[in-house]
Amino acid sequence: MGKFYDESIIPQEMRRDFDVYDRIEKLGIPMGSFDEDVNSLAGAGIAGAVFHESGLVYLSGLGLGPGNMYDDPERIKEGQKAGREITDSMIRRLHWALTCGSEGGDLNDVLYTVKALGMVVSTDVHFNGAPAVVNGFSSRWQSVFGGGTGEFAQNGEDQNYGGVHARSAIGGFTGRFALEPEIIVAVSPELAKAIIQNRGWVYPLPPAQLAKVKAAR
Questions:
Q1: pLDDT (tens digit, 9 = 90+) per residue, 78-89?
Q2: Which 3-state string (H, E, C) describes 128-196?
Q3: Could you please report the per-residue DSSP string of 55-66?
Q4: What residue spans define the domains of the chain?
Q5: In which band, very low, low, confident or very high, does the pLDDT at 171 lie, cut at 50, 70 and 90?
Q6: How many Cβ atoms from other residues are within 10 Å of residue 95's Cβ?
Q7: Which fold has domain 3-216?
Q8: Could you give the 3-state DSSP secondary structure of residue 78?
């Protein structure tokens, strides 16, 4: 496991015994590269991730999918597929947010998942499938960090439940995508503080901090 995970207050019987990156490789999630993924915050209106010294990490949402959702099984499957693609993108973003500096953390230092919000585009006032659509996102997240609906679960059980989160899933929005989820995870306060002290609390990095990180590589 990660250095900060090993030193955390997670009870021994609830600790993860698998490498998150092994699951990522088996799932075929592309992780990109430093040059491709670590960018400047200059000109950006929002952050992709924000670190709080408590250890909470807030990830901004991402909207994908074919558009308006309605209660048709095939349409819901399309929304779930988009949810899985969003998860993959967020995992990649979180990886680089944690690893681009010299603090020593990575995805194995995610202690657990706190909260997700899934907003589903649907102009149908009778639409009841918002939770089902967002399940594509939540289950994929559990596949990486652990949970009973993930792809590595057997009979509803997984070795670890670090990917399970509190969640709201609501429909009724407009937009040219199917859904936009956002999520909050917890890392150790020591890791969060190290990141903030070394390169600030925001990702992508402000230009001066990006230059500092590149110079240290």
A1: 999 999 999 999
A2: CCHHHHHHHHHHHHHHHHCCCCCCCCECCECCCCCCCCEEEEEEEECCCCCEEEEEEEECCHHHHHHHH
A3: SEEEE----BSS
A4: 3-216
A5: very high
A6: 20
A7: 60s Ribosomal Protein L30; Chain: A; (3.30.1330)
A8: helix
Strand pairing report for 179-186 and 56-59: antiparallel
Task: Work out the average pLDDT over 1-12.
Answer: 92
Q: Chain centroid to CA 118: how far?
A: 12
CA dihedral 199, 204, 205, 211 (to 10 degrees): 110
Tell which residue, 95, 71, 87, has the closest CA to residue 147: 87
- Backbone φ and ψ of 179, nearest 5°: -155, 160
Distance (Å, rounded) from C-alpha 56 to C-alpha 182?
Answer: 13
pLDDT in tens, 97-140: 999 999 999 999 999 999 999 999 999 999 999 999 999 999 99
Does the global pTM surpass 0.85?
Answer: yes
